[in-house]
Request: fold
Amino acid sequence: MRNARSHGVIAAGLALAILVPLLAGAARPGLAPKPDPQVEASPAKAKVRTEPLSPAPSSLKERSGIVVFLVFMWFSIAVLLYVLRLKKREADRVTSLHPPVSSPPSRGGPSSHGS
Amino acid sequence: MNKVAAWFEERLGLSAVVHFGAKKEVPRNKHTVWSYTGSAILVFFAFQVVTGILLAFYYRPTLEAANDSVGRIMTEITLGWVVRSIHSWSATFMIVTVFVHLTSIALTKAYRRPRELTWMTGIFLLAVTLFFGFTGYLLPWDEVSLAATKVGTDLPKGIPVVGPWVTRLLRGGDDVTGDTLSRFFILHVSVLPLVLLALLAVHVYLIQKLGMSAPLKAELRGEKVPSYPFWPDFVVREASVWLVLLGILMTVSVLFAPSLGPPADLMAPAPPGIKPEWYFLFLFQTLKLFPATVLSVPGETIALVHIGLGALALFLLPLIDSRPETRRGKVVTAVFVVFLAYAVGMSVWSLL
Amino acid sequence: MRLPDTIASRRKFLNGLLAGLGTAFAGTFLGPLVRYVIPPYKEPDEVRLPLADYRDLAPGEFKGFPWGIKPGFLKRRTDGSYLALVGVCTHLDCNVAYRPEEKKFFCACHDGWYDEDGRNIKGPPPTPLRRLTAEAEGEELVVRRAEG
Reply:
């Protein structure tokens, strides 16, 4: 019984974890910086471009959007790194209980057939 | 194992992979840090595949539309400029990591017996990676890419006997035209990925079969080598590295997005100060060193022969350095370091 | 190791946490990805045509015009006003053709018919052809989306 409940909790958590960022990502204002001049989607666009195009965020909203994204991303990475560190500690703990049998290296690693 | 996992296990037998991973060992010493470079290359390559596919949704590989389609990606498509930027930066990061990976293997002599084929497939992988960069560079079809491709495809002409034919094959004719763009595109998105995956399969298989190499000294002394189990210990550490690399890639891509020059004009003179991509700079500079003719042989040909011999030596390095513990081994290391310094020095010089 | 009265062992908790957070992290990139793969095509808000091309249409005669990338049909009524229709079948988006002999619009995909004012009269189309407003403004004929 307890097993089923814990599975349910984890499944619900995962579903939320996937849906919320998806919806948030879709709802966030578009990070689509446009260089000057704005390109129109009219059918009679035949002018040949002579200047280089440099993408740069053109409004404060876009610039702050980029900053927010970077901060959010690094924060998420930090959280994930912390969890990975816990995993690492646990893996090392398990390894110390059963250390790998490290024999002297032969010239072919574990599956060599002798020199 | 729960019911679902058991259902798959009965049919796929994938737990064998996990068991293999748990038994596989990664040596634990001061050189372990270089073991992260292999999977890092794969991470960057994965980014290239994903962003490449996304770019190909909107990119048009014809002379008339190529530049405009890249411009459209950068200005009209939501976050297109980010996708293009990631593709451009991940290419650079991947090539840097390939060079670091190669250097670490060379300096630790991990290519020694029985891992010679791993090294050789690795050199092929290096060539394919550089060719990826070369073909991709033309695709935006702006002034700089056209000029770089003209120069790059002109070079093989200097190869004796087959040279002019190679140039014509690369260009689809005697000049760089829309045909060049089409074939570079199909090479970049179809042929090279298939070749790379095939080579990678052999390379990775050999690594699993032969195991991770131990430091030379330990092997000679028959010492026990402390190690991590690959799964989960080393993979967990690798995952942390991947996260940081992803963060750096995204940050750089978002803050330093590349620009796009105006469409290339086949009639216009070459723009001043053209340079190939950074990873070809040292070759570019080497060519400049040679005089126009040496004893009635074109300087280009001499340079290309030198470069060819150097590449061959690099490819055959494990066979040349067949006894790394001897004096010859030390000489090989010294020569490699000199080559490295040469490549870096020439690259820097070409930028001055 | 699992203590009594807990929902999961430490290992399971860590694995679940990692999987969940990792998926969430990947998910934040998925939203923008979806927006990337659907390009922003918008119909034009208005299309300006030279009035001279349409001023001399016989009443009841249709002439085509580009409505963005869709075909449009313009008719000049007897009272001098204009009727503009989007020539896309309301059934499944095929382009329709005008048959002047029969004064009807025909959709070849599934045999749909509309009358000369765009009303659906036969076949699968569920609604009439979409109407646009068309007004002369100086030397131009301006076609706009109808309100509502």
Residues 26-46, 108-115 of chain A have pLDDT under 50 and may be disordered. Chain A touches chain B at residues 30-35, 39, 41, 48-56, 66, 69-70, 73-74, 77, 80-81, 84-85, 87-88, 91-92, 95, 100, 102-105, 107-112 (CB under 8 Å). The radius of gyration of chain A is 27 Å. Residues 60-96 of chain A form one domain.
